[in-house]
Amino acid sequence: MALSRKLPAICGGFPTRKRFLPFHRPSLDRREERAVCAVLRSGWLTTGPKTHEFEDRIKNYLGARYVKAVNSCTAGLHLGLLCAEVGPGDEVITSPLTFASTGNVIQYQRARPVFADVDPDTGALDAAHVRRALTAKTKAVVPVHYAGIPADIAAIRRAVRGRPVRVVEDAAHAFGAADRGEKIGRNSYFAAYSFYATKNLTTGEGGAIATRSKSVAQRVECLRLHGLSHHAWKRYLDKNFKYRGLEVKELGYKYNCSDVQAALGCVQLEKYPRFLAARRRIAQWYDAAFRESEWVRPLTHPFSSTRRSAYHLYVVKLCLEKLKITRDQFVQALQKENIGASVHFKALHFHSWYRKRFGLPPGSCPAGEDLSSRVVSLPLYPDMRRSDVQDAAAAVQKLGCYFHRKR
Ligand SMILES: *Cc1c(COP(=O)(O)O)cnc(C)c1O
User: Which pTM was predicted?
Assistant: First the structure.
């Protein structure tokens, strides 16, 4: 049998690699362990000095005016919508090519998610489609910096100019990405980052928000801890704190970040420039491996002095016209080749809750739906070796050759 027709493992052949290459592995070492142990020994576990240190460090890294740590990006996005005064009956425009939380938080506020289409090249919410989706009920737009590639926030701001519409950015993938020479979130009304286990920088679970508005920062400070007037650590750690009793100022949530998480985050942030450099190097190895591929087209990540990706995901678009299997079968076959793979994302309006609740027909976001049917995410994390990248690329090429649709 010719080399190009090697039998896939899913059909009984030998897998591309012997040992499974996981889709993700966090980069943690003794330094994170030591930092967490120090917090455990300090006697203060919840939001306190470490959280404040983490916030200051993020602020410096981003160059942002205000940063607040929270317990997830989902929590951050929810608070962003609260700050934007989104309420029952309002509409919030967002991308269909995103994770559940982006659409779900809109419904926490009893508002309606309105899906506008994305740019087929970057997967980011397209400002022209946002403009068309605007109505008198629109209260906010939630763009997603898909895969770490900056969405065109300036164009989205222009699209909503003159209207009482806020831009709340889902920057879960884009910590450290930059556009027009500024890091994402540096000059935002509101941007929420995720420090979930699989994200670029992790605290296990966690997140943060950046804002240029003092009043938004104060509101988040209050809302992230039950709507209380001051924080526990001030009451318990500061002997000069004048006890005035606690006051619930408005209905808040339990969205605060713990010092254990923050300790992890501080160490991760120190390493972060190296993480980004490693991610870029790995993406370049993949790009080189797929340059001539007939089966996949990788997404292009920008990297210039003014505009750069955070390289969160290495996404390839399958050339389904040339293949006789579906994307889901392709992912399954990759797993059998011992290559961890994933999908970001199945279009949100295709999920059963969204179908039942909003009943959007296929065709309502053609570019997002097309990407939804062909994207595959390959492993991308700092500790990968060049041979890991070569194995993942070889497995993709092997499957493409074998499942080639003959004319
Ligand atoms: C991971 C992710 C989130 C949610 O982040 P959490 O920190 O887990 O709440 C939101 N949006 C996108 C696009 C994500 O990938």
Answer: 0.96
